[in-house]
Design a protein that fits this description.
The chain has one domain (3-190, 225-249): NAD(P)-binding Rossmann-like Domain (Rossmann fold), CATH 3.40.50.720. The protein has eight helices and seven strands; from the N terminus they run βαβαβαβαβαβαααβ. The protein has helices at residues 12-23, 46-56, 72-86, 109-136, 158-178, 196-202, 210-217, 226-238, and strands at residues 3-7, 27-32, 62-66, 91-94, 141-145, 184-190, 246-249. The chain has a seven-stranded parallel β-sheet, with helices on both faces. Helix 1 crosses helix 8 (226-238), helix 3 (72-86) runs parallel beside helix 4 and helix 4 runs parallel beside helix 5. Bound molecules: nicotinamide-adenine-dinucleotide. Nicotinamide-adenine-dinucleotide (NAD) binds at residues 7-8, 10-14, 32-33, 43-44, 67-70, 95-99, 118, 145, 147, 190, 192-193, 195-198.
Length: 256
């Protein structure tokens, strides 16, 4: 059974990814911030991480580690903790991400930098930290959480959409670069998932309900669940002939 490290795993989509791997018998380390850091909405807390671990322990072997993907030393420590807990690392899920919205002329430079530092450079740090361990695995994979926003522009989402396009491009470059090592690299592109990004930021700032947005935008008529995304990630991580793919799990919102 594989050893899996999931960044941004304390809640939301990361929790769905953890659930999908545990249900298939894999061992899971979730890495996340634990200080409830202030952003446009609150990021994960120690309490959320503890609750997720307690809940998911029913499904299998799960542990947690404090992680800031913008800090290379922290990434090294999270990888070392995973290798030590599970005797290796086979699957890295780069799922941590932040969102900020706003028109370009009003968009703070610090927000622009943070979106790219977490969403894009975080993958650079984590991948470099994990490479030796992944090379030592006989069946290694990386799955990056991009977004349909990386394929289709959204008004007020310039930084976020550009960062997620970068995630798709980075995924393809790494898929080529790491293929000779037998490491497959893919991206998942979720559509609308009812997490903090939507409820505490996008909807909170738009005066429309979450249900209205889903009705308007999703052909299949419902939001994606965290487990829908987790199952897509598990597929990408275990499909032995698949690399360089950016898979939409989005109820038909985007079809290319
Ligand atoms: P979320 O805010 O619940 O989860 C994001 C997690 O990333 C949080 O636990 C947060 O603490 C963590 N994080 C943020 N900065 C970090 C850092 N520096 N180091 C470590 N962890 C950090 O939101 P979510 O919707 O579950 O987002 C998960 C991923 O899915 C993100 O990459 C997001 O961009 C992507 N996504 C979400 C949606 C959606 O509709 N919710 C759609 C497409 C893509």
């Amino acid at each position: 059974m594989a050893s899996v490290l999931i960044t941004g795993g304390a809640r939301g989509i990361g929790k769905g990814i953890a659930t999908a791997f545990l249900q298939a018998g894999h061992r899971v380390m979730i890495g996340d911030l634990t200080g409830g850091e202030d952003w446009n909405y609150d990021l994960a807390t120690e309490g959320e991480m503890a609750e997720t671990i307690t809940e998911l322990k029913n499904f299998g072997n799960i542990q947690g580690v404090n992680l800031d993907v913008t800090n290379s030393a922290s990434c090294d420590k999270a990888v070392a903790a995973t290798v030590s807990a599970f005797d290796g690392l086979d699957i890295l899920c780069n799922n941590a991400g932040v969102l900020a919205s706003g028109l370009i002329e009003e968009f703070a430079e610090a927000d622009w930098d943070r979106v790219f530092d977490v969403n894009v450079k975080g993958i650079y740090h984590m991948t470099r930290s994990a490479l030796d361990a992944l090379r030592a695995s006989s069946n290694a994979a990386i799955v990056n959480t991009a977004s349909i926003a990386g394929k289709k522009a959204g008004r007020t989402l310039a930084a976020y959409s550009a960062s997620k396009s970068a995630v798709i491009s980075l995924t393809q470059s790494l898929a080529l670069e790491l293929a000779p090592d037998g490491i497959r690299v893919n991206a998942i592109c979720p559509g609308i998932v009812g997490t903090a990004m939507w409820h505490d930021h996008l909807i909170a700032n738009q005066g429309e309900t979450f249900e209205d947005r889903v009705r308007e935008l999703v052909p299949l008529g419902r939001p994606s669940s965290i487990l829908d995304i987790g199952e897509g990630v598990r597929y990408l991580a275990t499909a032995e002939n698949v690399t360089g793919v950016a898979l939409n799990v989005a109820g038909g919102m985007v079809m290319n």
